[in-house]
Amino acid sequence: MRNLKFEEDEDNAMELKEYWNQALKSGEISTALYYYTRAIHTDPSPINFSNRSAAYQQQRRYRNALNDANEAIKLKSNWWMGYYRKAMALLGLRYYDGALEAVDIGLKYSPGNKQLQTLRQEILQQIEKSKKNENANQKLPIEEAVIRNQLDQTKKLLLGGFKLSTKIRAN
Description:
Layout: H1 13-25, H2 29-42, H3 46-58, H4 62-75, H5 80-92, H6 96-109, H7 114-158
Helix pairs in contact: 1-2, 2-3, 3-4, 3-5, 4-5, 5-6, 5-7, 6-7
């Protein structure tokens, strides 16, 4: 917590906001998380949970980010930003369908929201990319069979045509 002072008598959400803003500007995400947490204890508002969710996302702590996004939604279920934070966390966790669902709910509360629309496109691209990877992985068993066949042929060549036999005993 370099260069940031905190005194107990300043323990209110507005003053904490100044501290976390300083921390974010200086790239000290851990310090910002500390002040977000203090702010949540002082004022458990959806904005404070949303801000801490964003900080967790910057640290790639997506489960924590998701928990805070869900808290923001519990406190204010019609606020688009809670769903945005939830979608971002789910995207980080690679739960694309859940991320898309969260964005779509957010768009119900804020139709035409550019941030949500951009995120929705990003999620759809990830879903498409994921499907292509699944299709590539489905080809793997065939490729694996070809490789095993090549290995078998190589073994035959190395062994000079000798057959290896194994006996299986019945217990």
